[in-house]
Amino acid sequence: MLGAIEAGGTKFVCGIGTKEGEVLDRVSFPTTTPEETMGKVIEYFKDKPIEALGVGSFGPIDPVLGSDTYGYITTTPKPYWTNYNIIGTLKSEFNVPMAFDTDVNGAALGESLWGAAQGVDSCIYITVGTGIGVGAMIGGKLVHGLSHPEMGHIYVRRHPDDPFEGTCPYHGDCLEGLAAGPAIGRRAGVPAGELAKDDPAWEMEAYYLAQALMNYILILSPEKIVMGGGVMKQLQLFPLIHTKLKELLNGYVQHPNLSDEKISSYIVPPGLGDNAGICGALALAQSALQGV
Amino acid sequence: MLGAIEAGGTKFVCGIGTKEGEVLDRVSFPTTTPEETMGKVIEYFKDKPIEALGVGSFGPIDPVLGSDTYGYITTTPKPYWTNYNIIGTLKSEFNVPMAFDTDVNGAALGESLWGAAQGVDSCIYITVGTGIGVGAMIGGKLVHGLSHPEMGHIYVRRHPDDPFEGTCPYHGDCLEGLAAGPAIGRRAGVPAGELAKDDPAWEMEAYYLAQALMNYILILSPEKIVMGGGVMKQLQLFPLIHTKLKELLNGYVQHPNLSDEKISSYIVPPGLGDNAGICGALALAQSALQGV
Question: What's the catalysed reaction (chains A, B) (predicted)?
Fold first, then answer.
């Protein structure tokens, strides 16, 4: 039995599951102080015979093994959590192999094992919700380097009809600042979820997301692109993104996956649906068990 | 002894060298038709006792082992070379292990073995010359997926003082269209190499390249960035790029390598200098020998 923690900035989800990705039990509670929140986590796992534990976390985090701050949530602006040693706290309670990564890297791994990205060696998982985060698996491994990817903050070109200044506290009108849920809502004056399916806002959203995909494709060349998160429940976005992406690439990257016939099975919703996060943490636990 | 082929769109360089990256001999000739050019390649290696052969090629190419067109130069607009099976041609003459990749992936590997990126697990090699190409090593492996990276063609935001329409036949004002050598020259009305070191053109160039680096860092998180090619011989670009990059990131990615003290050893010229290309092909030969 594997243990999984989806450590989100708003809520934590803890669960147990099998090596086949089946979630057997789960609980959820709001993210408050580290002491209170981690107290509930420890309470949940205390009497469960887990063989390994996976943590997919909000960030930025330090996932680089051997680093002095490995296992920390690092420079988050979230009150109380800056430089919090989440893996250290768990290690002092549970003597099992652990894996620690971003929530989106976890989700990419989970989708590759049990979801929409099975059978490929490289994929990215994009969540578009209150923020924009992207996880990446390349050559069968989750991408780490200096740190972990932060692809939601790339700059994209502004839509000519968009005067909105953007919401990102670091970059103003980076991708997240222009295209995450709160940006759509603030630009429109109503929450994104209340906009009609044919509102022009979705064309603009697709324009921004397609630019991001173009960059991810040109830089990482993933074999599958999975798009989840609250905003991507607006399924009308998928065909709009497909069209805009093909316009932007303009035939430069020649691959059958980008053809009219296949693009809708290249850029897809999560196969694990709303379980993408917790299954991602489960996948991390499995990787810890295998010593990957 | 290893054999190396740097297959460029303008010229081919063939050489032999050691497993320590020392080039022992080399020849160079213009790229004409495949028959004539490959005839000279075969002639050069015919009587040399090479144990493996590495080919770093202009592209796009198909470097994906197991693909039907593995070893081909694919959709290049270069006359005569479209869908040319370069590895097939070499295999019919030489019965040694071969490795085939983009010239820039080869250079990234070469820099990681013998050059400026030694001791790291992930790096990128950027060439800024008649085009812009980028090779990437992540987790110790060169990046392949759907195909190979084509990072020179990402979109960047236009400089507010830049009315130039760009030179890319596919995308107009993508990065390559705005910032490769020919774009600098056409915008200025004189060849880039004739501009004074303090010409404002270099500020603009640094603005575009820094945007690209920001995206590469946020997406790939490389531990070292090596910048070569003709344009990067303008060494005044390095400090300009460092400054612009820090402005753009605005403190979002916190890492010592991005500090004022260390950024000039994070973003660096090639350790192998003008040998980056041929040593890259040598590094590919070595990887073929090791069956990597």
Answer: D-fructose + ATP = D-fructose 6-phosphate + ADP + H(+)
Distance of CA B70 to the CA centre of its chain: 20
Kindly report the nearest CA distance between residue B155 and chain A, in angstroms.
Answer: 7
pTM: 0.93
List the beta bridge partners of residue B124: B136, B225
From the list A121, A136, A157, the residue facing B157 with the nearest CB is A157
For chain B, which domains are there? 2-103+274-290 (3.30.420.40), 116-269 (3.30.420.40)
**What is the spatial order of strands in the sheet that B267-268 belongs to?**
B141-142, B132-138, B123-128, B224-228, B267-268
Interface pTM, i.e. ipTM: 0.90
Place of tokens 């360089």: B13
User: Do residue B155 and residue A211 have CB atoms under 8 angstroms apart?
Assistant: yes
Partner-chain contact B223 A149, CB within 8 Å: no
pLDDT per 10-residue tile (average), chain B, 292 residues: 95 96 96 97 97 95 92 90 97 97 97 97 96 95 89 95 95 96 98 97 98 96 96 97 94 84 96 94 96 70
pLDDT digits (tens, 9 = 90+) for A65-76: 889 999 999 988
Whether A203 shows a pLDDT value over 90: the answer reads yes
Cα–Cα dist A108/A284, whole Å: 10
Taking the C-alpha atoms of residue A245 and residue A243, their distance in angstroms, rounded to an integer, is 5
To the nearest whole Å, the CA of A275 is away from the closest chain B CA by 25
- Residues from chain A that touch B171, judged by Cβ atoms under 8 A, are 248, 250, 252
Look at B171 and A60 and tell me if their CB atoms are within 8 Å: no
Chain centroid offset of residue B193 CA? 20
